[in-house]
Description:
Elements: E1 13-17, H1 20-26, E2 37-45, E3 53-59, H2 75-95, H3 100-103, H4 108-118, E4 119-130, E5 137-148, E6 152-162, E7 168-178
Antiparallel strand pairs: 1-2, 2-3, 3-5, 4-7, 5-6, 6-7
Amino acid sequence: MSMLRMVDPLENVIVSDIDDGFMNKVLEPYFNHSRYLKHAWFLQSEGNDSQDLVMNGEFSIPESCYIDNTGHFNAVEFNICFNQICYVHMAHCIKHALIPELSEDYDMETFFEKQLPNVLIAKLSSSYQSQLNAKQFYGTYGINSIKKTSTCTFIKTYCRFHDDANGRSKGEVTLAVLAP
């Protein structure tokens, strides 16, 4: 198994395995054949900043949920994989009150109720450095910045994917999380 972020033993990082039951609950809105995130790990550095909260995941797309096999990872699959790792990260942070801007408005019950209608992609940019094997690959998701307004929390995020060879893809996504 490959981890995207190397953990320095001198750095105080807590790595938490995300429980499969919790992850399955978060990914419940997805059809079974389009649940591409298979395992996830949450990394929390000792700082109290949202930038210190990172999620790594292992993904597999045995067959596309919308098109014949292209043989490689593409923009639609980037978006789906981003959504899945993002939702699991957000749910974990809400459950443990790690992001005050979200914890002010959301608890787990509200998150599950508003997960689909209130978490919007305001801007998405993705690029593909080399062809990525969609059958088995890894991802990292993190937060660059958060800005809360009276009706919405804007979260600027990054997401990177890689496989065991040289496959690489990365992107930046701005989320608009509406107040419930």
